[in-house]
């Protein structure tokens, strides 16, 4: 009987590993993790997802929405979620930014247009392990993003940022530009 339990446990673990391997975090999809403290309804996000699916297929973008804001979940999503973009409350973005969690967006967006997304934060430099504090545009305010405005879903004090461990930062920036410009 003990052998069967061990065999069953090993099969369960092997299946779980296969399932996780199949959930790949490939470069062909841009995952957008979003969670806010208001636990907003899903309708606006679904509308934005439909528009992205219809109008913007290269790269493909997909929302990973968590209706309940939880700092532990946010930490997991930053570390191992395979996300390229995070959309979170500004205070959360700034907290994680201290350790260099986001890419500076100055060369892709006009920082004068998005002053709410400009702040001092950690920036990881090539070859260095510790972030250096610099002021940059790190996030685009969600209430200024055209696709969110068109969907009638404009949560306040939320920023969209590209994470430094994005599987494909160029694709993530294209998606962020599409969300912003409509």
Report on this model:
With 182 residues, this protein is an alpha/beta fold. It has one domain (25-181): Periplasmic binding protein-like II (D-Maltodextrin-Binding Protein, domain 2, 3-Layer(aba) Sandwich), CATH 3.40.190. Helix content is 38%, strand content 20%. The chain has 6 helices and 7 strands; from the N terminus they run αβαβαβαβββαβα. The protein has helices spanning 2-22, 43-55, 71-80, 90-97, 146-150, 169-181; strands at residues 29-34, 60-65, 85-89, 118-123, 132-137, 140-141, 158-162. The strands form 2 sheets. The chain has a 5-stranded mixed sheet with strand order 2-1-3-7-6. Helix 2 links the parallel strand 1 (29-34) and strand 2. The longest helix is centred in the N-terminal third of the chain and has 21 residues, at 2-22. The N and C termini lie far apart (61 Å).
């Amino acid at each position: 009987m003990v052998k069967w339990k061990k065999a069953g446990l090993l099969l369960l673990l092997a299946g779980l590993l296969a399932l996780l391997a199949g959930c790949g975090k490939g470069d062909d999809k841009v995952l957008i993790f979003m969670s806010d403290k208001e636990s907003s309804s899903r309708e606006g996000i679904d509308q934005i997802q439909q528009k992205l699916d219809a109008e913007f297929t290269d790269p493909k973008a997909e929302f990973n929405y968590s209706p309940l804001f939880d700092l532990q979940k946010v930490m997991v999503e930053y570390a191992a979620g395979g996300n390229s973009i995070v959309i979170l409350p500004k205070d959360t973005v700034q907290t994680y930014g201290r350790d260099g969690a986001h890419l500076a967006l100055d060369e892709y967006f006009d920082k004068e247009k998005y002053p709410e997304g400009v702040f001092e934060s950690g920036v990881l430099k090539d070859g260095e392990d510790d972030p250096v504090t610099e002021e940059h545009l790190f996030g685009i305010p969600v209430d200024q993003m055209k696709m969110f405005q068109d969907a009638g879903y404009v949560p306040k004090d939320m920023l969209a940022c590209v994470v430094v461990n994005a599987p494909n930062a160029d694709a993530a920036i294209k998606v962020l530009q599409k969300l912003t410009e409509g």
